[in-house]
Design a protein that fits this description.
mainly alpha, globular
Length: about 200
């Protein structure tokens, strides 16, 4: 039972990284009691920051020359997506990568945005030593709107995580973040992830 809960939690994480407590409470009621969240978000930030650092070094990026979101999109291929989300995305069926390009592109947009957030933070930390990575970690939490409406085909017989309305739970938290339906703009200026299937593809 615990294995089912952990695997369902991985699907929830792919949909949103800053889940309200009510989301986990709902999942626990559906599956089991006594669940403790695994820190997938920490791994995502660690990997995104490492890729950001590599991008800065390999492209001689300085604070006045931060790459556009489109440039970073070509840098983030399927391997980068998988590395940043390795544990939870392993729950998704293999055919998903080929069968649902729009959803894969949504995750590409998520990783691109997270890497850019960390690139900006890394450059600021170099200029002002008192700055920490905390602002970047908090900003990455705001990216849930890119993926929270997705439904992900996964390897488990259960389908609890896909059936939880994360936007409805989010509204109960009232912390100022929003779902895709509000028309919030992402960092590249587009609305949600409706930027077309060719985003970031070489």
């Amino acid at each position: 039972m615990l294995a089912i809960l952990v695997n369902e939690a991985k699907i929830m994480f792919l949909r949103a990284r800053n889940l309200p407590p009510a989301a986990y409470n709902t999942l626990v009621k559906l599956v089991a009691q006594g669940f403790t969240e695994t820190n997938y978000r920490s791994y995502l930030n660690t990997e995104a920051r490492a890729y950001g650092q590599d991008y800065i070094i390999n492209n001689d990026i300085i604070s006045d020359d931060i790459s556009s979101i489109e440039d970073l999109g070509s840098y983030v291929d399927d391997t980068v997506i998988f590395q940043c989300l390795r544990n939870p995305i392993a729950q998704v069926i293999d055919s998903w990568w080929e069968d649902d390009k729009d959803t894969v592109d949504a995750f590409r947009m998520l990783i691109v945005s997270a890497i850019k957030i960390h690139i900006i933070n890394i450059l600021k930390c170099k200029e002002e030593l008192h700055i920490s990575n905390a602002p970047a970690l908090n900003e990455v939490k705001t990216l849930d709107y890119i993926t929270c409406d997705l439904r992900l085909p996964h390897n488990n017989a259960t389908n609890y995580a896909n059936n939880i309305d994360l936007n409805l739970l989010e509204s109960s938290r009232s912390n100022g973040s929003c779902g895709r339906g509000c028309g919030r703009k992402c960092r590249c200026g587009c609305r949600s992830y409706g930027h077309g299937r060719g985003f970031g593809q070489k």
